[in-house]
Amino acid sequence: MSTEDEHPDLAAQQTATDEPEIDRGLIEGWAARMISNPDRAYKIAFYTFTIAFLVTTLFPFYWLFMLALTPSGQFGRDSIILTPGGFDPSLLAEGDLTMGTNPGAFIDIFTTVPFHRFVFNSFLIATIGTVLVLFVASLAGYVFGRLQFRGKTPLLLTVLIVSFFPPAAFFVPLNRLFNRNFDVLAPIIADGSLYNHPSSIIIPVSALYLPLAIFILMVFYAQIPDGLEDAARVEGTTRLGALFRVIVPLSAPGVATAGVLSFITIYNEYFFSSLMTDGRPENWAPMLEGVLRFQGQYETLFNLMAASSIVAVLPIAILVIVAQEKIVSGLTQGAVKE
Amino acid sequence: MANVKLENITKRYEDVTAVDNMNLDVEHGEFITLVGPSGCGKSTTMETIAGLTLPTEGTIEIGGRDVTNLPPKDRGISMVFQNIALFPHMDVYDNISFGLRLRKYDQEEVDRRVEEAADIVQLEGMMDRMPSEMSGGQRQRVAIARAIVRDPDVFLMDEPLANLDAELKVHMRTQLQRLHKKLDTTIIYVTHDQAQAMTMSNRIAVIDAGELQQVAAPLECYNNPNNLFVAGFIGSPAMNFENGEITEDGFTSKHITVDFDPAAHGVDVGQQVTLGVRPEDVHLERDQSSAAAATRTFNVVTDVLEPMGDELFVYLLMARDVEASAEGRGEGQLLMNLGPDEDIDEDQDISVVFDREKIHLFDTNTGDAIVHGLQPKSVPEP
Amino acid sequence: MANVKLENITKRYEDVTAVDNMNLDVEHGEFITLVGPSGCGKSTTMETIAGLTLPTEGTIEIGGRDVTNLPPKDRGISMVFQNIALFPHMDVYDNISFGLRLRKYDQEEVDRRVEEAADIVQLEGMMDRMPSEMSGGQRQRVAIARAIVRDPDVFLMDEPLANLDAELKVHMRTQLQRLHKKLDTTIIYVTHDQAQAMTMSNRIAVIDAGELQQVAAPLECYNNPNNLFVAGFIGSPAMNFENGEITEDGFTSKHITVDFDPAAHGVDVGQQVTLGVRPEDVHLERDQSSAAAATRTFNVVTDVLEPMGDELFVYLLMARDVEASAEGRGEGQLLMNLGPDEDIDEDQDISVVFDREKIHLFDTNTGDAIVHGLQPKSVPEP
Amino acid sequence: LGDDFDGIEISADDQIADVEDVIQESLWDAGLDEDIEIRILPGDFETDSRLADYQSALDAGRGSPDIFMMDSGWAMPFIIREQVLNLENELSDDTLDYVKNDYLPATVDTASDPETGDLHGLPFFPDYPMMNYRKDLVEEAGYDPEGEDWSTTPMSWQEFAEVVEDVWEYHGGPDGDYDYGFTTQAQAYEGLSCCTFNETMTSFGGAYFGDHENLFGPTGDRPVTVDDEPMYETIRMMRSFMYGPDADDAHPDYPQISNSDLVEFGEEEARGPFTGGNAIFMRNWPYIIPIHADEGEGEIGTMPLPYGVEEGESEYEGAGGPSHALGGWMLTVNPNSDATDDAVQVLEAFANESVMLTVFEEQGNLPPDPEVLANADPDAVGAMGPHLDTLAFVGENSVPRPVTDLWPEQSSLIYQEVHDAYTGEKTPEDAMADLQGQLEDSEQ
Amino acid sequence: MSTEQQSDEGSRLLMRPLNWLETQTEAVYAYFLLAPAFALLGVVAFYPLIQTFRFSLLEDQTAAAEAFGGFVGLDNYIAVLTGNARVPRQFIDITTTSGFPFLEMGSPFLRQALFVTLAFVIISVFFETLIGFGQALVLDKDFKGNRWVRVAVIIPWAVPIVIQGMIFFLIFNPNVGFGSDLMQGLGLFGSNPLANTRDSFIIVTVADIWKTAAFMALLILAGLQSIDRSLYDVAKVSGATPWQRFKYITLPLVAPALIVAMLFRTMDAMRIYGLIDSSVGCSTVPSMTCLVIISLDQTRRWATASTVAFLTAVVIALFVLVYLIFLRDSGGEL
Ligand SMILES: Nc1ncnc2c1ncn2[C@@H]1O[C@H](COP(=O)(O)OP(=O)(O)OP(=O)(O)O)[C@@H](O)[C@H]1O
Ligand SMILES: Nc1ncnc2c1ncn2[C@@H]1O[C@H](COP(=O)(O)OP(=O)(O)OP(=O)(O)O)[C@@H](O)[C@H]1O
Ligand SMILES: [Mg+2]
Ligand SMILES: [Mg+2]
Question: Where do the ABC transmembrane type-1 domain residues begin and end (chain E) (predicted)?
Fold first, then answer.
């Protein structure tokens, strides 16, 4: 099968070498080459775009990093642009390796509060939540994407309706529900209520994220050729088996995307988690609670917030790196003869 | 015992009836081939048997059990799909062993069977290729291996050899026949390849527009086709047809007359009939000895020659004034089949005879066969 | 002028060399067919010509222009893909008219051409079906229509008729030939179907494992194969081979001797050669008149019979003690081709002769052909 | 992983949670039953979120935490709704007496039901703003704060503005080393309506709801008095400070001593430049003093906030003269707790001088009993030491916020209109007229 | 009857319900598989929504422990729609006048929750889609280092909203950031962007685009990856230029994913709150959800909050209708 490895390279090299360049101005020659060789222009445009995207997406991060390195006393002295506040390279000569910055912020966040525990809580909650979401949404996505039955459209719309409401709209009833003491739960959970229990974060957040996951999976599952599901069923799977053994792996880009989106959402969730836990890391308070610990009634340790946000984003960066193999796996190619 | 029984199976899509009230009884251990024009409903029939499509009406039995509502996995079948349908995310080994792994066979057994199947389809050493890295024929062989690696009661094979070269086709043909004998399974097969249909099957089921036309042994269909459709469909190149009328003396058309006793053949004088004769039953006058009973001689003109290496197809015009229709054989055109070295040219006047015993008569209006082979004439020709 | 010229084309994948230093010169207006075993590199060659894959080495010219680095759209080609690859989101009309709409033909012209193409492939009235609602053969016909609706300089067709029934195949064959004449285009064709290869092509290019074996007119390949591979590959069923040695008197093997003058045929005494004879050049002793020059009689035993309707294949064992290998024809096995009504049984002792003029000799070690057709013996046989 | 702590949980903030052990010790020392353990939960970071948090806990009838630390800015609605325990019958008479007689009266008011006068919360610590200034810079410019006893002698806004202008000018003005002569908080947020605007317009003799006895209600039966001259004065003065006397709706008598960044400033934004050595005067809460001691530039001095008109010159009782918005926190008991008795005992222990002192030393949180502050040893309280005088003065001149059940929505109406007037989107007259209408509506 | 191996007893038991399912009709099967999703949604979404709807018909009660008073019918809705609700910024505040155009803004355009939200949604979703598509196309290409570019492009989406708000708040903070000076220098912003409704609106919009373009990119990328590459071969041979391949193959095939992405982006943008709250503040840029939260958390007017939430849902429903029509046209399942 051919891939995107088209010929621009070869073509570009060839024309580039036999182009007489002596008597042309630099720009003029360049323009002429662009015109005579659109592939090259295309390539340059491509890299320009890529770099522009990179700069715009990464700059705020870079800036956040600079903020983290700024010692607390340096806010407001001069604005932070490309270097952290208080940055003074001349200090290097005096043996100050930090050059007036405060890399210690990245240690302080673990010593002043157990930030790692907060991150762990969020990570665990997000992992469980994501698995739950993907499983439930897979079943529903399969139904909506691949089955024909009466009542499908109304049901699908019903799912969608959930996303019409601001999360706050669910809050008062849910708060009353989750804080009620259920005697049945008493043996499992300390006081029979879900307060301070991870499930009180996982359940509402998963449910509110469910419609998006269902829609994403529906779209991707619908695209898998029927032939493959048929083949799996003949080979001896149930329909559900075919879903998890064939349709899900083949929808890897969609599933991984839904997974990443849901993981990030749950990982960063704050609204429900701040209300369903008492804020102690032992009681499953989430990562964001940890970040916001650095924001007091009056004093806000922006540098520590920045440092902790950077640290908090790391697990997600790793997740994305791992998942991206799946996100970009374009596997269906040549699956069936059509 | 794994007989397969279709009873009144009908499958309707929105605007097409893909399968129309089909009744088919496949014996245990039988090798039956479904043939028919493209879009006639062969694949749909297979899918219904497999349980992948629910029939709109009718019931299906496999091994005496009503399976109409059973899921595919409980029907004891395996299937080669026309569209191949390899799992793109699995390598060859995983594709082939998929069904076995589902059934939790132990690793050794899986390996052994996969190796055996790969051997049969000549795919040794490709075990870790992905489908996207294989040629069309290789993919098809993986699909076959995936089906034969298990030993189900019924094999459904939809065009399993379409992308294979002649040699491999012959090889696979033999292998499938051996497998059939060895495993004592029932095989339902779809092919467009006459050679496969003729050589492999116990019976052929000829389908047209979703309706069963004839179910019989291959030679039976070839020699005694039920109707015009079967006659035209079975045999390649197809039978020659000539529309005409029954006269007192036999058959008369614009170009030819063949004389026989209408009464003795169950036709009425004046009846519109179509006469059919296969290309190999048209002989040069000088070879007329090879016909069991030659008709009178017809003078024809050669049109196009198609040398095939092992044989030579000669298109004939029954008269100089016949328009050579390029769209297959038209009225007044005739095809004959000669040895490869026959010394013949285009646009040459020659004389041919038909083999009387191989002449078929059909009712032009209903298409039903009337007679296969003309009886010797009661009154000897002068 | 749209000749196609491949010069030293090589295409390597990670672990396979799909095309190996191929040189091929296709004339303007020629119809050339690539044949070869599954996985030999036919599709890859087509993709290289189309510009979908960059060759690892070598250059390609179309119409005298070096197109090695041109994108497919600037090569003036159209292609039928082996995997069909219809656009799933377009109905039949949109699939067929895709290329035309890209080129902004006006609506009437598009309609006219689409109708014409649909007519050729017999898809009238299916214009608004989606690919998922069609049978395998119907989809393939859409793919063909999509390619022929434009008039490019070069047509590339990879197995375009694989899923069609015999009748349709013949129809399409004729249609493609007409199209070829009418449009005066160059066609490069891949097929596994001998009949197509033989009847349609001006020349056949036989490929094995990425290497070109012979490029010649179909009958040339059939009658004068360059080497053992071509001899075995072209012709279905394949040629019979017997390995033996040259003696003073001619050829001797475990089962047969054929006498001729080694010197006159350019072979040395003691040389290991393989004798080849096609099934249709093996005759019953009683029919030996039909052979131009019969060899001596061999006594053989019939093994399996395969009645095909229009002919009968008989597998022969050259001696009672030969093991009938089920894996195709092995040592000491022979296939012959008889008329359908020949009166013969399995396991019967019969005598056969070969046609001397149709005997081929190959060097067993190199595989190269030495002689096609034995000369009349200088010393008449007693 | 559930924990089985069965002591008393106090939801407070992060900083207080840090000194849990010290507080526990001092509570025990103050006579708390040794069996009663406390645990301080960090609670939420922001006062608004904490409000939401407590609201949902109380709405759902949740039993934990046992004690809430509530902002006096929003505790009143809970008290009015009887959602927190009425302490009147729970606390010992001694403690009740001590609180009602010796605690800063304004803090007791914000913790009591306005209708019945029943105490629902134990004031934990009050908070009041001061004017902070860079003593070193002021002295360089030729002033003598100590000699002139700035620390307990309030200036008028006019005097103040001139001093600031002068000092700023001395150091180069807007183009010199200091971007701001003066910083305060004028962002559109609670702090504007409860505090900075409130205290400034009060010092000009204005009032939201007429006489100060109306501050805690009764809602609906009190006048709305925002469309009034002191309000315009305050706004015009602030506009002069930010945009200069020549700007639209600016007060021509006041010089420019800052810039329009103030409309984006909350506490931290105001503190940043000051601590960072970029501002000379700043209105802020005492929390900045330990921070400044740690990392700030120069020497810090404090004084009361300036006043607009003399005390008593106001049309409304209680308004006029130096005014300092009273903030602060109280402890309330969760009635759903299954250990209310223990929780009340913990409160009793908090009403103890040594506990107050411990908290003051550890956290810089002022004792609710002014006597304790007065008796504190300046050397024992760290950075706060030099500022005890000012704090005492400021405490006496504090003005509570008008918290009722309607305050949260009235507050946002106020800060939005005031902010619009500050930024010049509306004239002071329009803004206050609009506000008058809105407040009257909400009072119904 | 089958010669195939039987799985062990345990998994047979487990298989039994699955097998039972296999033999049911498509509809029964569908309902069965939907059960978990609807059970979850039922408890966490539908039940609360019914409650919330009930709340919206009750009277607010700020001075009692119970937040709701008696039944008042649609009074809350009328109050909110006529600009008379007890909220600091109105949902919609239009009065009729006698002269042309007969309608007059009661407060400025960007101070009315409905309008500020609509403007925000239209602008941000438009640019997010555009930029996200561009990013996805870049990410879809094979080039050196693309895995890192991919991570870089996706990562803004991983930043918690509060932090994102903080970043933009600080960038435009006069003390810390450089944003105000820069934008003033360019003549785009006034002196105090965070205090200016228009400037703040732009900041929030840009911040949102910065963050959520990645969401679009991710979904579109997944859509792109699911396209059978051999279709591009066919298109190339048919003579399609890269643009035509995009238009006729990529776009229609990615459309279902794209529309779902846009649909959810739109719904999300309609509910914007966290970003505003943590950067410029709800009083400067009052979105619909801002009103909900203010009434919920600050003023404890829960009936009003419920009413605004339901009105928000109605507005979103109207938008969704448009999408569903597109989704249907694009051949998506529905
Ligand atoms: N993408 C790929 N990566 C690795 N190997 C490949 C790839 N594509 C094809 N091949 C290998 O290259 C060889 C030639 O393949 P090609 O598709 O050209 O065969 P073919 O002659 O068309 O065969 P068939 O008749 O079965 O279609 C095969 O061995 C195949 O496995
Ligand atoms: N999903 C579908 N929706 C509508 N019509 C369909 C569908 N599937 C098949 N058909 C139609 O049903 C008829 C029978 O199709 P089927 O696939 O069984 O044909 P076939 O005999 O296998 O043909 P071929 O030899 O071309 O594969 C065809 O006319 C086809 O167009
Ligand atoms: Mg089919
Ligand atoms: Mg191929």
Answer: 114-323
Q: Do A338 and C69 touch (CB under 8 A)?
A: no
Regarding the beta carbon of B19 and ligand 2, being less than 6 Å apart is answered no
Total residue length of chain B: 382
Q: Name the 3-class secondary structure at B43.
A: helix
Q: Could you give all domains of chain E from N- to C-terminal order, each with its CATH number? A: 57-329 (1.10.3720.10)
Regions in chain C scoring below 50 on pLDDT: 380-382
Atom of ligand 1 nearest to the CA of C47: 18
**D295 CB neighbour count, 10 Å cutoff:** 13
**Six-digit token string for A59:** 């700059």
pLDDT in tens, A230-265: 999 888 888 888 999 999 988 988 999 999 999 998
| Residue of B75, B103, B108, B139 to mutate, testing the E interface (most E Cβ within 10 Å of its Cβ) | B103
Q: Match 């022929």 to its residue by tokens.
A: C148
Distance, in Å, from the CA atom of B294 to the CA atom of B382, rounded to the nearest integer, reads 14
Is A10 in Cβ contact with C83 (below 8 Å)? no
Distance B56 CA to ligand 2 centre (A): 15
Cβ of C307 below 6 Å from ligand 1:
no
Distance CA B100, CA B119 (A): 17
How many C-beta neighbours within 10 Å does residue E141 have?
A: 12
HSE of E23, CA atoms in CB hemisphere, 13 A: 12
* Cα gap E102→E109, rounded to integer Å: 16
Question: Please, what sign has the CA dihedral across residues A261, A266, A267, A270?
Answer: positive
Chain centre to alpha carbon of residue E236: 37
Q: What digits encode the pLDDT tens for the residues B163-200?
A: 888 888 888 888 888 888 888 889 999 998 888 888 88
Q: Which of E282, E283, E284, E296 to mutate to test the interface with D (most CBs of D within 10 A)?
A: E283
The gap from C-alpha C375 to its chain's centroid, in whole angstroms, comes to 28
List the one residue out of C267, C382, C290 whose CA is nearest residue C337.
C290
Q: Tell the residue nearest (CA) to atom 4 of ligand 2.
A: C133
Q: What is the pLDDT of residues B236-252, one digit of tens each?
A: 888 999 999 999 888 99
Taking contacts as CB-CB distances below 8 angstroms, the residues of chain E near C156 are 237
Q: What are the tens digits of pLDDT across the range D266-291?
A: 888 888 889 888 899 999 998 888 88
* Full DSSP string of A4-54: S--SHHHHHHHHHHTS--TTS-HHHHHHHHHHH-HHHHHHHHHHHHHHHHH
B136 lines ligand 1 (CB under 6 A): yes
Closest to E238 (Cα-Cα) out of D288, C81, A37: C81
The token duo for E96 is 């009729």
Q: How far apart are CA B246 and CA B255, in angstroms?
A: 14
What is the DSSP code (8-state) at residue B76? Answer: T
Q: Residue C234 half-sphere exposure, CB side, CA atoms within 13 Å?
A: 33
Nearest CA to ligand 2 atom 7: C133
Q: Do A75 and D288 touch (CB under 8 A)?
A: no
- The confidence score (pLDDT) of residue E5 equals 43
Length of chain A, please? 338
- Asked if the Cβ–Cβ distance from B151 to E22 is below 8 Å, we say no
**Looking at chain C, which subunits does it touch, using at least 3 CB pairs closer than 8 Å as the criterion?**
A, B, E
Half-sphere exposure of A163 (CA within 13 A, CB side): 24
Contacts of A270 in chain E (CB under 8 A): 160-162, 274
**What is the three-class DSSP state of D403?**
coil
> Is the pLDDT assigned to residue A291 strictly greater than 90?
no
- pTM of the shown model: 0.89
Q: Which atom of ligand 1 sits closest to the CA of residue B138? A: 26
Taking the C-alpha atoms of residue B129 and residue E244, their distance in angstroms, rounded to an integer, is 33
CB contact under 8 A, A279 and D9: no
- Inter-chain contact E241–C79, Cβ cutoff 8 Å? no
Q: What is the ipTM of this complex?
A: 0.89
